[in-house]
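BUG-343 | component: ligand-complex export | severity: low

The export step for NAI jobs runs without errors, but we want the raw record kept on the ticket for reference. Input record follows.
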Amino acid sequence: MTLHQAVLIPGDGIGPEVAESVIRILEAAEAPVSFTRFSAGLAALENGQDALPTETLEAIQHLGVALKGPCTTPVGRGFQSVNVQLRKQLRLYAAVRPVRNLAGVSSRFEDIDLVVIRENTEGLYSGVENQVTDDVVMSMKVATETACMRIAQWTFRFATKRKRDKITVFHKANIMKMTDGLFLQCARHVHEHDYPNIEYEEAIIDAGCMKLVQDPTQFDILLLENLYGDVVSDLCAGLVGGLGVVPGANFGDDQAVFEAVHGSAPDIAGQGIANPLALLMSAVMMLNYLNDTRGDDACKTVATRLKRAYNQTLLERQTTRDLGGSLNTQEFTEAVIQRIPAT
Ligand code: NAI
């Protein structure tokens, strides 16, 4: 059996709590992955390191795969987001967030099965902000043809591989004619030249959001630039039960970092009540990625068993408080472990 080496970044706030839960579940399922811990974010600063230590970046570059808990970013001051830096420095240009209803988790809609794909490296997250005059500040939105083409090609390839029928681009090219205009131009080009058989549509993001909350089942894949993708991911999480049930992955050409959509939830950190499911689902995505990229069926088998275990746990309504249940993190962890099918 191959034992895959991966980086684990527990992160801040609820990060270490949900990471510990997921590691326990992976160990119980005998997942063929061995993790080495590295820090980032506040945890790294507290160790006397940089917010994003070089050794953490190098470890991900070397091993190619990481499971990451959320990292806190100070609001309106302090260091640059570790998440943004990590995605940029490792060129993890495609963020993928599958959004699905789960049996046992109540939500306003049924049959939601969409994927949010977010360009992860530029847009308003370029981090270029200037003090122009005493009372004027400016933030620069950057779009490059390279990054817009790269994410468009990646998304159409993903749609083909996953047998998905339709891609909808949310944009604001009526106002941001150059930046969002380029994003659209690239998506249209890739559609027309390489993937004419995949249905393609565009929606101005304000109207798109209205359509999303009226009937999310009309969407299949949503492709968005960085900021829109960030916001719409959380909106979509709300459609299927909340941030506790939406996993995510950040893909580059050579590396992938798997993390939940949610943040470090400082309001509940340290209370032992965080829902580890979104990070567990991200770990399942990681196992499927190891199967896809390294051809290791054992990873796929464990991923399938873990999926069965958490689906059964939810079906029996054994859930944490955010999903209406009464279990704490540890009790939910045990509940999932008890439901892992035998090999
Ligand atoms: P958040 O996602 O941390 O929390 C929003 C709300 O959802 C809170 O009420 C929280 O208690 C709840 N929540 C989130 N995850 C939960 C879970 N697993 N179980 C139960 N409840 C959960 O968003 P917020 O408060 O805007 O951000 C907090 C910090 O996290 C900020 O510093 C932000 O920059 C950072 N952040 C980091 C991300 C990452 O590392 N990828 C992503 C999003 C935010």
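Assignee comment: Attached the raw record above. The chain has a mean pLDDT of 96.
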